[in-house]
Write a structure and sequence with these properties.
This protein is mainly beta. The protein is 6% helix and 47% strand. The protein contains 2 helices and 20 strands. Strand 14 and strand 15 form a beta hairpin.
Length: 258
Amino acid sequence: MLDILFAAALALTPSQTLARLPAPEANQGVAVDGGFVYAVGNSEIAKYDRATGQQVAKWTGDPATFPHLNSCAVIGVELVCASSNYPATPMSSTVEVFDPVNMVHLRSQSLGKQPGSLTWVDRKDGAWWAGFANYDGRGGEPGRDHRFTTVLRFDDRWRVTGAWIFPKTVLERFKPRSVSGGAWGADGRLYVTGHDHPEVYVLEIPRLGNELKHVATIGVAIEGQAIAFDRSRPGVLYGISRGKREVVEMQLPRVEVK
């Protein structure tokens, strides 16, 4: 039965690669706004001009304080980043906020102990949404594996207002790692990536129950890791190739759900 579900979910036109930008810092993910892309490493964020491909600024943090930035997103006038203590345990996470104009750190929001390690954060419908990873091996905690990966919704005081789990069709692609990137699309669907596969999983919040609905899988020219939408161009997604240390710009196909 699971193989049938996989086949249905994968029956979609692959994405189109539009451009590649060399970025040595592209180890964890990428963020994007109207004029720039931000290549994210464990303890660094480099700002690149989208038109020229030239690096224009860079922030570097103390690895003892910022051991593992996982992803960033330009939300309003701020660059909001998911950060964790991976691979240390017990897991703990923070949201780190930067000024993208001057590339300086503004503040930190501690999330403390959560049901996993924070890998992505985004904003939708007046709420914060975040993905918490769990792992089978390194970075995991005893008694929990990739199946415990969770999406939480928070209010503006970072109080949990909702929680969802992933369907088996996506968890099977995550294992033995977990969710790496997540971003809300203009179509109101949640787009997530794992750690290794060249795939983006398209999900919907269910009307009933707490299991996310897997509606499509899109083939992409990246090997998982964190992603970001170009909000000025519908369906244009940015990701990274860790092996090539590149930022990759892609046009996603329109998801039609019957």
